[in-house]
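Reproducibility note. Readers wishing to regenerate the assembly model reported in the main text can use the exact inputs given here. Chain order matters: entities are listed in the order in which they were concatenated for prediction.
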Amino acid sequence: MALIEVEHLRKTFLLAVRPPGRFAALRSLLSRQTRPVHAVSDVSFTVAAGELVGYIGPNGAGKSTTMKMLTGILHPTSGRIEVAGRVPYRERVEHVRRIGVVFGQRSQLWWDLPTIESFTLLRHIYRMPVARWQANLHSFSALLDLEPFLNTPVRQLSLGQRMRADLAAALLHDPTILFLDEPTIGLDVVARERIREFLEHINRENGVTIMLTTHDLADIERLCQRVVLIDHGGVVYDGQIATLRTRFGRWRTLVVDLNQSVDHVEVPNAELLRVEGTRVALRFDRDHTTAADLIAAVAARYPIRDLTVEEPAIESIIRDIYEQPNTLQ
Amino acid sequence: MLALYLRLIGARIRSQMQYKLSFWLELIGFALSTGLEFVALALLFGKFPVVGGWHLAEVGVLYGLSSTSFGLAEMVSRGFDAPFELMMQRGSFDGVLTRPLNSFFQIMASEFQLRRFGRSIQGALVFLYACRHLTINWTLARMILVPLTLLSGMTVYMALIVIGATMCFWTIKTPEVINIFTFGGDALVSYPLSIYNGLIRNLFLWVVPVGFVNYPAALLLLQRTDPHGLPAGVAWAAPLVAATFFAVACLFWRVGVSKYTSTGS
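Running the prediction on these inputs yields the following structure tokens for the assembly.
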């Protein structure tokens, strides 16, 4: 049985519509006109124990809303959710006892107190045995280098430190699943890498199932075997990253350095992207021609000094999908 | 549960103590401003020595009971007040729902406003002062009645504050209308309920039971009879009325939480 099961999940918000014209504010108090907004219209997927799944999509696609339903914060309008055999919103307390949640935008720690005090309070809230809690704290301190700021009030931590502390706080009670909403937002490259390493570690070594949303596709490429891509409240792709690349990344770019500069290059089955002096970039469809054929065709016409074939970045694939949702149908 | 409550409140007070100066300034400021309320009441009695057949000292009993219990309620349910509104605006109620504790308990344990105790101290002083100027026959029953009434009053005011907070689930901001019943209620019951018309009397006894905070107990303590026939014995029903009202507030809270829509992203 899957650890997370989501079936035809839907969440509709009713937005108040303010009538136009004079005294609009006053009238809106008397008659509340609302307009339905489908934040999540039809989402289904399952996650098996031990997976590390990236849940991605453009702004407003419904990522956070789905995460909030999975964590028991929001009640779905319709559809079915089960996480570890529990319906999150119906058995919220039992459900959240076994999950960890990190919102990148918002700390869950006690703002004015030293970091260690938040960890201590959490021990009481989750009724953790002291020995187990200490062992966890010790292990996370080592992995995330928490020691230097355990006695610093949370409000004085840097963003990177705060995020590390929040991650530790979400994991101290040994959750089986960790939900992360934008865990690397606003962090510098070094801090991001550190967080990624940590997530990889707890997924592999501790067997924690992880589901994360992110706008940083490097997170996805580095961490996730699988992505669920959503747009306009529905799933547009669910599968391996590698498949996403082969299925939707048909376009390759051949960059050749010629012996002399040219104004224009024309070869069959390829589209000229740009010419910069002696450097020429050609785009080709892998389904129509091979890199070898194309190189041969170019070499037959122009003397080549050097060349590279560029794989499509996952980022550009996903951008293409966002921009042309029908490429998937 | 109580141990956890004390621990969380302790953490909150330690947080407040991080800003020591502001804490003391607020405490003193609050004690002074609430103290002025009774001064205003006393000045009024300089002009009209008797209101609805009640003298200043007797009204002091009403004022003292209501103020003390209102202060206690404000002190422990501060979490449902302005900080909760802020929580709703920022969407940080999300965090509450990801903790394995009842959300009501968490909000209750999220804030504790010691300075609101200023209102209770001031109310208790007025009550004691009034008792000294009255001849009250202190039987055991009457002595038990006072703390019981304070506890019931505190419960009624807490329920009102919770109801106000719950409205945030629909309106984001606590509607001002709730202040009519908390601050307005406290001011209203500082005078004998008998001076108001039937509609107000019934509303504040049987719908929003702020009347139970002090009036029936004062009738019993002062051995007065209500001109409209309310038996003084209902003072003993105050805990039941308060508990019922509180249960309604808790139920309303549960509905509110299920309607929680969070904020974007």
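We highlight two features of this model. Chain A has a mean pLDDT of 88. Chain A is about 35% helix and 30% strand.
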